[in-house]
Amino acid sequence: MAKKRILSGMRPSGRLHLGNYAGALENWVKLQNEFDCFYFVADWHALTTNPSAAFEVQENTYQMIIDWLAAGINPENPIFIQSQIKEHAELHLIFSMLITTARLERNPTLKEQVRDLNTENMIYGHLGYPVLQAADILMYRANVVPVGEDQAPHVEITREIARKFNQTYGEVFPEPETRLTTFARLPGLDGRKMGKSNNNFILLSDPEEEIRKKVRTAVTDPQKVRRNDPGHPD
Predict the structure, then answer these.
(1) Does any domain span residue 210?
(2) Residue-number span of the structural domain to which 60 is assigned
(3) Fewer CB within 10 Å, N side or C side of the chain?
(4) Is pLDDT at 234 greater than 60 in this prediction?
(5) How many domains does the chain have?
(6) Residue 206: inside a domain, yes or no?
(7) Which residue blocks in the chain are alpha helix, DSSP H?
(8) What tens digit of pLDDT does each residue of 177-202 get?
(9) pLDDT digits (tens, 9 = 90+) for 85-133
(10) pTM, rounded to two decimals
(11) Longest dimension (CA), the chain
(12) Is 55 helix (H, G, I), strand (E, B) or coil?
């Protein structure tokens, strides 16, 4: 019996941190023996919230793939870069005819990102992010998509697009299932979600002394962030 197929992708943001590992990589490694796995660098997605990231993509891609392999991703699995396969853009264009802007605006993940980025003038690339993601997933006819809970609404949009396409043109694409990661959001050193934008992360590639230094700054009791605050750290 043929294995089901998984597609996993990540935006190239450079060296990965523990939040990336707990939220995605650890799960990717575990699923390798169970599924037929495809991995891709989502470099076009990196431009949806930061167009100037184009100048950093090449170096960030190199660093990120090194971390993938160091974490245990088998290099014999297909690993590719999104922008080098133009069919991603072509299928994205076709899929954009099958979904309304009103549906995309109801995406709860989008609302969180708009709040976090504190932006009022949204570009289409950001609004249409889930449509490009649907093209990424369905082009390879993935059956399962491992994601954190914040990306689950995007997979649901992918399922809706697949359903609409199949109803319009005939059965072509499977409706992929969501496989949630164990730790959807790993707390950072300050208690907020770990991320580079919050500057509260520990890199997978950090040397031991740097890790020790960062851990010593971690907040263990939200009621006692500063040394002279009342309370007892957990």
Answers:
(1) no
(2) 5-186
(3) N
(4) no
(5) 1
(6) no
(7) 18-20, 26-31, 43-46, 57-71, 87-95, 101-105, 108-117, 124-127, 129-139, 152-169, 208-215
(8) 998 877 667 888 888 888 887 889 99
(9) 999 999 999 999 999 999 998 988 777 766 665 566 778 888 899 999 9
(10) 0.84
(11) 67
(12) helix
